[in-house]
Amino acid sequence: MVKIAELKRTWWLAQIRYLTDDLGLSKTEISNKLGIQIQALNTLERGDRGLSDKFLDKFIEVFKINQFDLFNATDNGARTVTGHHNVVSVNGNTNIGDSMADKERISYLERILAEKERTIQILLNNKE
């Protein structure tokens, strides 16, 4: 049986890995967003200090992480990162993701669309 504290720690470490490895955030950026010193973040990572519920709530809020992912941890403590999204309600619609990964994808697609528009304008100007 996995203890709750171990489950929280495994989940939190997976979230930190996602933020650093997949999203490319530095630990300094993470600690700054959380309003803590990088030494405190490292202490938490090493397990020298426990993760309080208040800290985890702030972490979830700051990084807009779906807290229900915690329930996706397996019995052996392994963690599968299934999503970093926070469903929000806009005009009654509750299927709009608001995550850092979604924002990065949107930004990337906006850049592609802007480049496409620029190319179309160049082609139209050359045609005249």
Architecture of the domain at 4-84, CATH level 2?
Answer: Orthogonal Bundle
How many individual helices?
5
Strand element count:
2
Computed CA radius of gyration, to the nearest angstrom: 20 Å
Instruction: Calculate the mean pLDDT score and round it.
Output: 75
CATH class of the domain at 4-84: Mainly Alpha
Major pleated sheet: 2 strands, antiparallel
Distance between the termini: 73 Å
Describe it for me?
By secondary structure, this protein is mostly helical. It has a domain at 4-84: lambda repressor-like DNA-binding domains (434 Repressor (Amino-terminal Domain)). Helices cover 59% and strands 7% of the residues. The protein has five helices and two strands; from the N terminus they run ααααββα. The chain has helices at residues 4-22, 27-34, 38-46, 53-63, 100-127, and strands at 87-90, 93-97. Mean pLDDT is 75; it is low at 73-97.
List keywords for this structure.
two-stranded antiparallel ribbon, 128 residues, elongated, 434 Repressor (Amino-terminal Domain), 5 helices, mainly alpha
Please outline what is shown here.
The protein is mainly alpha-helical and 128 residues long. The protein is 59% helix and 7% strand. The chain has helices at 4-22, 27-34, 38-46, 53-63, 100-127, and strands spanning 87-90, 93-97.
Give the secondary structure arrangement, pairings included.
Blueprint (H helix, E strand, L loop, with lengths): L3 H19 L4 H8 L3 H9 L6 H11 L23 E4 L2 E5 L2 H28 L1
Antiparallel strand pairs: 1-2
